[in-house]
Specification:
It is a single chain. By secondary structure, the protein is an alpha/beta fold. The chain folds into five domains: about 5-40 and about 455-550, Orthogonal Bundle (Helicase, Ruva Protein, domain 3), CATH 1.10.8.60; about 90-110 and about 265-455, P-loop containing nucleotide triphosphate hydrolases (Rossmann fold); about 135-255; about 555-790, Ribosomal Protein S5, domain 2 (2-Layer Sandwich), CATH 3.30.230; about 800-829, no CATH class. The protein has 27 helices and 35 strands. The strands form twelve sheets. It has an eight-stranded mixed sheet with strand order 1-35-34-31-26-27-29-28. A hairpin with a 2-residue loop joins strand 5 (about 170-175) and strand 6 (about 180-185). About 40% of the residues are buried.
Length: about 850
């Protein structure tokens, strides 16, 4: 055993020497933008994921909140994207063969907008050319020439029919309803009344003549229909020839311009055919309201389009040729935001319509050819979203769809656009626990997100880290309009970073917290009309942050001052010690002393924690408490049973407790009770303990020491008060200046101990003792007293084990009869 070591004031916190930082103000430092220092492990993983071309090398970035995961990732993605070429464009086009299945056509980078503009000009030019062609005298003459042969033949047939009818006194007239036969008297047609008054023989003669003409009239009508059909066919061919001549060169120019886009060339050919088949609609251009204008109605109903909308181009994705690969940060990954949507528009009279122009891209589409960063929690918490994302990454392509259709009660008619090929890296950003849960529950995480980029919450405190902090503060000042920081302010921020890391050799990477302190310090400097942030401004910002959150701590200190919380800060007590706990309040943590007491007597080796029995303790505390039994057996139970019944509790504690940092305090209280030796109440203790009595490091050591210091301060510092911490916690000390100065002035003390025995000797001023070669402890030592008392309790327990038939369990000095055992039991009671 080694004696407890009192910590020197210089070891209670690490000081950053501002004079050694190498600059006067952060204004002198190079602006590195959003680049954060450290995180070598994460940056190497990110590089692997970005450089790997194999499928499945997407990135899952993990780490605590506020360490700059998103900032670092965005910076790395932008840097990598600048070195890559911009991806191609995509457009959606109306399908003339399958109107409900819009065509997805790829185009070279920057050509989508050009195609859309070219199609608008084509429609204008086509209307002008067609109007000029069909209004020309040449077209009128050719149309007349095409119709004349049929007209002459029809007139000749009609003349022959009239001549034959005239011989029977019948006149023939052509009407829209067909051929009319009219009885004649000389040159005058008979009216129906006149025809009815004719003598019967005359009427029958007319009727016979009309009946005779019936087959001839039917033959004439059949021939007329054939002639008219041939005429219409010749006129259609003429119109097609004229229209093709008028717009053919326009289509040919477009085909030549987009010769490298096979789908577009094929679609342009279909456009030419459709324009020729629907000349009237194109000639009506300008009479429809523009697409999207107030009062306009999309020219589509469930994919069947009319009007000129089918010639429009939906620029679905487009990129600037020199912009590099896209980087998309989607913070609200709903299904439409991520995978796109098919929009619908209401029409007068009810109902909804849609067409290829109402297909909208999502973040997946916009990121194709580049990178997409998503919050893992939002994606994984929505099964439909996660399932679709996995499907897209596996297939390497995506098709627009409305997920509500899958759950619709009745099927509806809508569009089913062609899929679009994708090539992108997806980066999920989440907590370590979320990654572990997803990795364990979903095997697709292993195949689709093969790169884990793990961000550390601390970095080594060295020259590079100090320069990194300074560069970060300088960039923050420029970006957020803060005052620049002088060297003393940067030094104070670095010390604050070590305090957050709880390590004299490391600095925190929780840059969100650092940025908050920096912003408040800049405000303090501005209020004092200071051009730069100085060290005292950083101290003020830290104090203000604490003051905003320490209301509960202040109330507890008031309860200590007025005696509501029963705590002793002087004197000695048997079986009583001041332990230390930490209260977590979200953005603020503080330590407070708590009285721990122990009672003990003869028993059957049972240790009871009241907190455990009342379910006010967590699993880690229970583990630490159960370790005490192992320590007792290791120290005193090698040759006999531990005949003890002990109870331990946290006095005036009514909330859930957890952690094993109170194990040493509980053990001190128990050993004090067993040895009947009082413990100093002006010393608080903390530390985990193992079964061999070695003190182990705990968390929150700074808050615990400062909590006991404040409690002693409100009760009055005596110069003897202090805290015992595990020796392995020495490097974690970054105490406040107030505590360090009090230690330096001798008003407060901090000791480090390696074992329970070290702490016992300081708390009792009695030697703990070591077991000698004879297997016994030196007389008068703490262990000797405890072993002697446990031995007496074991004898009492042996007497209690008398069997009903008077036999014993092997101890010769125990009474041999049941009557003697009964008398002994009564006397003991």
């Amino acid at each position: 055993m080694s004696a407890p070591r009192e910590m020197e004031p210089s070891r209670l916190r690490r000081i950053c020497a501002s004079a050694q930082l190498g600059f006067v103000s952060t204004a002198e430092l190079e602006d590195r933008g959003e680049v954060l220092f450290g995180q070598t492990r994460a940056n190497e993983a990110i590089s692997l994921g970005l450089d790997a071309d194999a499928k499945g090398y997407n990135i899952f970035a993990t780490g605590p909140a506020g360490v700059g995961k998103r900032t670092t990732l965005q910076s790395r993605l932008n840097e990598h994207a600048r070195r890559r070429e911009a991806p191609g464009d995509w457009v959606y086009l109306h399908s003339f063969r399958e109107p409900r299945r819009p065509i997805a056509a790829p185009l070279p980078t920057g050509r989508a907008q050009t195609l859309a503009a070219d199609m608008r000009r084509f429609l204008e030019d086509a209307r002008r050319e067609l109007t000029a062609a069909f209004d020309s005298e040449t077209y009128a003459r050719r149309r007349q020439q095409a119709a004349e042969p049929a007209e002459r033949e029809q007139e000749a047939a009609l003349a022959g029919l009239r001549q034959e009818a005239q011989a029977g006194g019948i006149a023939i007239e052509l009407t829209p309803a067909g051929v009319m036969t009219i009885p004649m008297r000389g040159d005058r047609p008979l009216t129906p009344p006149e025809f009815a008054q004719l003598p019967e023989p005359v009427r029958k003669r007319y009727e016979a003549a009309i009946e005779t003409l019936g087959p001839r009239i039917q033959s004439f009508l059949t021939k007329a229909r054939v002639l008219q059909g041939e005429a219409r066919k010749r006129l259609r061919e003429l119109d097609r020839e004229v229209a093709l001549f008028a717009i053919g060169h326009l289509i040919d120019e477009l085909k030549q311009r987009y010769a490298d886009c096979e789908k577009v060339v094929g679609w342009l050919a279909e456009v030419a055919d459709d324009v020729i088949e629907n000349l009237g609609q194109l000639q009506a251009l300008g009479q429809e309201p523009p697409s999207g204008a107030p009062g306009s109605v999309p020219a589509a109903v469930a994919g069947g389009q009319t009007g000129l909308a089918r010639y429009e181009v939906n620029v679905f994705m487009t990129h600037e040729p020199r912009a590099g690969a896209p980087v998309v940060i989607e913070t609200t990954p709903t299904y439409p935001n991520l995978f796109g949507r098919i929009e619908h528009q209401g029409v007068l009279g009810g109902g909804f319509v849609t067409d290829h122009r109402m297909l909208r891209p999502g973040a997946i589409h916009r990121a194709s050819g580049g990178y997409l960063m998503l919050p893992a929690a939002e994606v994984l918490s929505q099964p439909l979203l996660w399932r679709k994302l996995k499907e897209v990454l596996r297939a390497g392509r995506i098709r627009l769809e409305n997920p509500a259709e899958e759950y619709a009660l009745l099927p509806t008619t809508t569009l089913t656009p062609e899929h679009i090929d994708l090539d992108l890296k997806v980066v999920l950003v989440g907590s370590p626990s979320l990654y572990e849960l997803a990795y364990r529950l979903d095997e697709d995480v292993r195949s689709l997100f093969r790169v884990k980029a793990e961000f550390d919450w601390t970095v080594p405190w060295d020259v590079d880290a100090e320069r990194g902090y300074a560069t970060f503060l300088g960039a923050l000042a420029r970006r957020s309009g803060l005052c620049h920081f002088d060297a003393t302010a940067v030094a104070r921020v670095i010390e604050y970073g070590a305090r957050m890391a709880e390590d004299q050799n490391r600095l925190s990477t929780r840059f969100l917290e650092i940025a908050g302190i920096a912003a408040e310090a800049s405000q303090c400097a501005a209020r004092q009309d200071s051009a730069q942030v100085r060290g005292e401004h950083v101290e003020q910002a830290i104090e203000q942050k604490v003051q905003r959150s320490n209301l509960i701590e202040q109330h507890l200190l008031e309860m200590v001052r007025d005696g509501t919380l029963l705590l002793d800060f002087d004197g000695r007590r048997v079986g009583q010690v001041n332990g230390l706990s930490v209260h977590e309040l979200g953005d603020y943590s503080f330590g407070r002393p708590v009285r721990i007491t122990a009672t003990a007597g003869p028993g059957r080796g049972a240790l009871m924690s009241i907190e455990r029995e009342t379910e006010l303790s967590g699993h880690i505390h229970d583990k630490g408490f159960l370790t005490l039994s192992g320590y007792l057996r290791e120290r005193y139970g090698a040759e006999r049973r531990i005949a003890i019944a002990a109870t331990l509790t946290f006095e005036q504690s009514y909330a859930q407790i957890d952690g094993d940092s109170a194990a040493s305090a509980e053990l001190y209280a128990l050993l004090s009770r067993l040895a009947d030796v009082p413990l100093r109440q002006d010393i608080a203790v903390t530390g985990s303990v193992n079964q061999h009595g070695e003190l182990q490091a705990i968390g929150g050591v700074n808050e615990k020491i400062e909590g006991f210091f404040r409690a002693c301060s409100v009760s009055g510092l005596t110069g003897r008060q202090g805290v015992i911490i595990p020796a392995t916690n020495r490097r974690h000390l970054m105490l406040s200046r107030e505590v360090a100065q009090s230690v330096e002035a001798g008003r407060f003390h901090v000791w480090s101990a390696a074992s329970v025995e070290d702490g016992l000797e300081l708390l009792t001023d009695v030697a703990a003792g070591q077991r000698g070669q004879a297997g016994t402890y030196p007389p008068g030592t703490l262990h000797a007293r405890i072993e002697e008392r446990l031995g007496r309790w074991a004898c009492l327990d042996d007497r209690e084990r008398v069997l009903a038939d008077g036999t014993w369990d092997g101890h010769a000095d125990v009474p041999a009869t049941a009557a003697q055992a009964s008398t002994t039991r009564a006397r003991t009671t």
